[in-house]
Amino acid sequence: MVYVTRKAHFSASHRLYNPAWSDAKNDAVFGKCSNPHGHGHNYELEVTVVGKVPDDTGMVIDLKKLSDIVEQEIVEKVDHKHLNLDVDFLKGFVPTAENIAKAFWQILQGKITDGRLYSIKLFESENNFVEYRGE
Amino acid sequence: MVYVTRKAHFSASHRLYNPAWSDAKNDAVFGKCSNPHGHGHNYELEVTVVGKVPDDTGMVIDLKKLSDIVEQEIVEKVDHKHLNLDVDFLKGFVPTAENIAKAFWQILQGKITDGRLYSIKLFESENNFVEYRGE
Amino acid sequence: MVYVTRKAHFSASHRLYNPAWSDAKNDAVFGKCSNPHGHGHNYELEVTVVGKVPDDTGMVIDLKKLSDIVEQEIVEKVDHKHLNLDVDFLKGFVPTAENIAKAFWQILQGKITDGRLYSIKLFESENNFVEYRGE
Amino acid sequence: MVYVTRKAHFSASHRLYNPAWSDAKNDAVFGKCSNPHGHGHNYELEVTVVGKVPDDTGMVIDLKKLSDIVEQEIVEKVDHKHLNLDVDFLKGFVPTAENIAKAFWQILQGKITDGRLYSIKLFESENNFVEYRGE
Amino acid sequence: MVYVTRKAHFSASHRLYNPAWSDAKNDAVFGKCSNPHGHGHNYELEVTVVGKVPDDTGMVIDLKKLSDIVEQEIVEKVDHKHLNLDVDFLKGFVPTAENIAKAFWQILQGKITDGRLYSIKLFESENNFVEYRGE
Amino acid sequence: MVYVTRKAHFSASHRLYNPAWSDAKNDAVFGKCSNPHGHGHNYELEVTVVGKVPDDTGMVIDLKKLSDIVEQEIVEKVDHKHLNLDVDFLKGFVPTAENIAKAFWQILQGKITDGRLYSIKLFESENNFVEYRGE
């Protein structure tokens, strides 16, 4: 079993905001991350697939194919977008890194057919990142 | 003469948009950077000061002091903000990295009294950055 | 379950030295890391917390809160210090990265009440790092 | 138990090519990675050893010793080489990152006598990397 | 005047070799960089353009346009190639970073029509890089 | 003319302290950088040489030679040392990054005989760095 990771990048804005709460409560819980006009990040996304290494190709999954899946299913839909307002599959919950990673997992899980999806790692910044392994 | 640089970070959203133009023209010129709800970046800012090195302190400028100036005058005003909507000193022009760097120069130039401001370098992402030297 | 990581930085000096040994033995075992006046590093610390993601906040732990805990309990006590001489909770053992990581775990374990502490990763340099998971 | 990692670097060229296949099939499967004259990378290698921390040394494994093993057994044999043509232990399979990592594991496993080898992580580029844990 | 930089990446192999010299002399001058089968790097290329900032666009040069020029004129021709054997415009000289940077300058100089080309910076590795400014 | 840069690394401790001043004044001017037992950094050093590119070698200076000079003249003397106490050529002034960079210039200037020394850039941390060009 080998773990294969492909990294992708996108730039987006978001706002931490729970519409069930008052503005005051959002401000108390999310602080400056709840600024009404939003703020943004250069997100880094690491998608890890695990599987056996076939003798003939030597590849758990063709990295070009993995890169294309990540590009089409994720990056094209979130890059240069406002994550609360512009992305259908991110609606209905607070777009924290935790929830975004889980949403990416839901999308990618069915698309990876060579090996199986092992981990989604999402960096909001160099100092803050999350990982979801479908557990 | 030694060049001393302090790096700072902020996360913000912006939209490339010229209000004198139609939406179609904005879209033609700025592409996805003109998405109406904006997008965002983890900006990196490098402020460089040049000067002589005094014998007693060995410092062109106290880096703590430089850091405090950059924090108060810039980072507190732009971090977790929408650069088009939330920042007074960025109004009246398209908030490209070029124009933001020039605006930062205007603000910092008068605040640096040990040595003189030499350069403002602004990274929008790892792959895109600009530098302004007041020329 | 999502793994959430916050990165912190500190600059400190240390010396690998076992007082139960002769200087010659310390030199034989630790080499240049045993230089009597010490040497130093820009340490990078990654603290990972694992937990469920609540619907209302979308956060395993508020990263601002996690950052404050790490800052108060660790960074303020070790930054710009000599780890052998200036830090009470690092006394009584050789301050290798392994032992420092374990000491940080002891301190942080009781302070993390949202989710549970999963890992302490400590980088002495870009090329040398350790991880402790409380096992 | 603490996980200790040492990072090493080497620059090498390789070509993804299965000699049992026609050139057309190689081209179809491996694309530009199958360019006949090869292409190259600055590889980054992370070798992780896990073990208990002895009281007297505080080190799972002496990092100087681990570094020397990695240098002699791996880096000296692959640095500034063509991985398909110049390296005996990489012959007989397609030199994908997956297969190279497994080959490195075979070599290093017997050489690590303090603690035990836990993981080989190999970066072909900043965006593509694999990990093998001997499973 | 603002300096605008776009970074690009390519992976290639090369060999330092002067055909006017004996193998022994090549080996004496270039050492392991003269390995007959070549070796490789993940090159990083920074292209800097300098110019005035127009009021209407706020951009010295459209970074998308600059990126497209660099992609078409350089990256597509060198990525996943052997620089001595596969690239017409790199023939006739030793492909050191110095000479590659100068060759890139010759190609790009005529293609940049917004602002003017200021610098070509080429990283062979994190530790070795060159810059050419057309002087 | 091409600018060629070689990067080197060393880990050291230091203390900002002017012996002509009282402890109170040192504390007021240098703050936590004046901690009596010192603190430390992973320093990064970039040495840049500028010169013409000879036709036969394609190299301004052999990077192996430049690397050896930097290693022997600088790194071996400062790595894993206390810069105030263990390094003869750093005595007699406050070991700020500014003064260390100037001291490195004095040493390296006479040793570089292919091309001429153009710049010494010294990073104390990712966020703080200085450059000296002999002006």
Describe the structure.
Six copies of one chain form a homohexamer. Chain A is of the alpha+beta class and 135 residues long. In chain A, a hairpin with a 2-residue loop joins strand 4 and strand 5 (128-132). Helices cover 27% and strands 32% of the residues of chain A. A five-stranded mixed β-sheet of chain A has the order 3-1-2-4-5. Chain A is built from three helices and five strands. The mean pLDDT of chain A is 97. Chains in contact: A-B, A-C, A-D, B-E, B-F, C-D, C-F, D-E, E-F. Chain D binds chain E through residues 9, 11-14, 32-33, 35, 37-42, 79-82, 85-86, 125-126, and chain E through 9, 11-14, 32-33, 35, 37-42, 79-82, 85-86, 124-126.
Uncertain segments of chain A are none
Put simply, the count of helices of chain A is: 3
Rounded to an integer, what's the Rg of chain A over CA atoms? 16 Å
What is the N-to-C order of secondary-structure elements of chain A (H for helix, E for strand)? EHEHEHEE
Main sheet: strand order of chain A: 3-1-2-4-5
Distance between the termini of chain A: 19 Å
- State the helical fraction of chain A: 25-40%
Quaternary structure annotation: homohexamer
